[in-house]
Specification:
Blueprint (H helix, E strand, L loop, with lengths): L2 E9 L3 E2 L6 E2 L4 E3 L3 E4 L2 E2 L17 E5 L2 H8 L16 E4 L11 E4 L2 E8 L5 H6 L4 H8 L4 E7 L1 E3 L4 E6 L7 H9 L5 H8 L6 H13 L6 H4 L3 H4 L1
Parallel strand pairs: 7-8
Antiparallel strand pairs: 1-4, 1-8, 1-13, 2-3, 5-6, 5-12, 7-11, 9-10, 9-13, 10-11
Helix pairs in contact: 5-6
Length: about 230
């Protein structure tokens, strides 16, 4: 697979989220006009939690449209929640999933050049978003996480554009393998060593692999996957 389509481009502003005091920009609306993809994301888009979202390594979030019918089938009681944009993605992608992209891939969209920087690590806000208490854990378990792009060469992106693969420096590291390493084969030392040595890896991911290698332990996922009391009360 060397091409995929941009079905929708979506942006949003940070606003109150859920019954607590949290804020989020996960509720993004579709835009039909071209938008500039800058080093820090699409012009007009926001992130509420800049500690965990945004920045050069998480400039643009993409999610495969293929996953939505699967979620509706898995969770029929919440089927009406699973519409494009549900995961707060900037790009709704058709024709590719996590199995089709590798870390470091460079994809050309017109004059814009994007680089696959990392998969999404799901957090508790998805539990509230979809009204499914363990949604973040389900996303993690299934590997239907979506992914992030860096913007290597800024320019405009619009719905209907197509992306073409220009470079694949790490063909042995599809995003599905990363997910398996992070959440299933968690202490595979040879794989962790190879992963940590990858060029262009976000420092947070390199640090995670190195901590596992040094400690022989897996980090606690509880605070990421489970909504804090103040966010649901």
């Amino acid at each position: 697979m060397r091409q995929f389509a941009i079905a929708e481009v979506r942006i949003g502003r940070a606003k109150p989220f859920g019954p607590g005091t949290a804020r989020s920009a996960i509720d993004k609306h579709s835009v039909t006009t071209p938008l500039l993809a800058s080093a820090l994301g699409l012009v007009g888009d926001e992130q509420a939690d800049l500690r965990h979202h945004g920045g050069a390594d998480k400039a643009i979030h993409a999610y495969s449209a293929t996953h939505y019918p699967k979620w509706a089938q898995d969770l029929p009681e919440a089927a009406d929640q699973f519409r494009t944009g549900g995961f707060g993605e900037n790009l709704v992608v058709e024709g590719a999933t996590e199995a089709d992209l590798c870390l470091g891939d460079r994809w050309r969209i017109g004059s814009t050049l994007l680089e696959v920087s990392q998969g999404r690590q799901p957090c508790w806000k998805l539990n509230i978003r979809f009204e499914v208490p363990d949604m973040a854990r389900r996303v993690q378990t299934t590997g239907r996480t979506g992914w992030y792009f860096r913007v290597v060469e800024p320019d405009q992106i619009k719905a209907g554009d197509h992306a073409s693969l220009e470079e694949r420096p790490a063909p042995d590291w599809p995003l599905t393998r990363v997910t398996d390493l992070f959440y299933n084969d968690k202490l595979n030392r040879p794989a962790l060593t190879a992963f940590a040595a990858l060029s262009g890896l976000p420092e947070s991911w390199r640090n995670l692999a190195e901590r596992r290698l040094q400690s022989g332990e897996v980090e606690d996922w509880g605070s990421r996957l489970n909504a804090p009391r103040e966010a649901i009360s």
